[in-house]
TrEMBL record:
PROSITE patterns: ZF_RING_2. Residues 188-229 form the RING-type domain. The keyword Zinc-finger applies. This is RING-type E3 ubiquitin transferase. One of its GO terms (molecular function) is zinc ion binding. Its EC number is 2.3.2.27. Keywords: Metal-binding, Zinc, Zinc-finger. The keyword Ligase does not apply. It catalyses: S-ubiquitinyl-[E2 ubiquitin-conjugating enzyme]-L-cysteine + [acceptor protein]-L-lysine = [E2 ubiquitin-conjugating enzyme]-L-cysteine + N(6)-ubiquitinyl-[acceptor protein]-L-lysine. Transmembrane segments: none annotated.
Length: 234
């Protein structure tokens, strides 16, 4: 399948010595019993993401580095399923080769691996730079990892999400094309931006629709609909 139209992803793998002591000190508190009982080596993957806008002429940095858990966020980056599978397979292959070939990892129960990932929003033919920038994937348009739907299954070192957000009765939809987005809402009532390809919308029980990340941040401050003040009860 490859990258979805209008988006590209590049990645590479590396190890960093300073992460070895960090993860083998902190992660083993959580993983120690299982690792030692079954006598296998564990791998911790840390994604560091750079967000870029790739215009027809050049690339611009959209700002921000994130250190994240893998699967949910890759989906948020508009990465196709086969790309996610290939990245995971290559990451594990790299980790296993690194652990086998480098003597300094022989005594470690946990080997940390850095995945350097570029998420590029690609300007399409006939698309203005402003329009491409408007649909660019940026840190401020992403839900914090501890608030995502998979939060209970992510790293035990991350702060727990507000419990009501995990039980929030919303309907989430990803915009596949602009007409689809406009049928859901003309513009987000919170940020006033029009729907763009790849954006995720959430419909509250009162049927009002917002960008998913916008309404999550709103509900952290007020448990009611921004438009009609419908009280969100979970």
């Amino acid at each position: 399948m490859g990258s979805r139209s209008g988006y590209e992803h590049r990645y590479g793998f590396s190890t960093e010595d300073e992460l070895i002591s960090l993860y083998n000190r902190e992660a083993l508190v959580y993983f120690d019993n299982a690792l030692r009982k079954h006598r296998f080596k564990g791998f911790v993957f840390e994604i560091r993401t750079r967000f870029l806008l790739k215009t027809i002429l050049e690339a611009h940095d959209c700002g921000g580095w994130l250190e994240l858990d893998i699967y949910y966020r890759l989906f948020e980056y508009w990465m196709a399923e086969d790309e996610i599978y290939n990245l995971a397979r290559e990451a594990f292959d790299f980790a296993k080769r690194t652990a086998a070939d480098n003597p300094k990892y022989a005594s470690l129960d946990v080997v940390p691996v850095v995945i350097g990932l570029d998420v590029l929003t690609v300007q399409l033919e006939g698309e203005t730079v402003n329009d491409a920038h408007g649909r660019a994937i940026r840190p401020e348009c992403l839900i914090p990892m501890n608030m995502c739907p998979m939060a209970p299954f992510l790293s035990p070192f991350r702060p727990p999400p507000p419990s009501f957000l995990l039980e929030l009765p919303t309907v989430r939809v990803r915009v596949e094309d602009v007409d689809h987005g406009l049928a859901l809402m003309e513009a987000c009532p919170i940020c006033f931006r029009v729907p763009t390809i790849g954006a995720q919308m959430s419909s509250l029980p009162c049927k009002h629709v917002f960008h998913n990340h916008c309404v999550v941040h709103w509900l952290l401050m007020s448990k009611s609909c921004p438009l009609c003040r419908y009280e969100i009860v979970v």
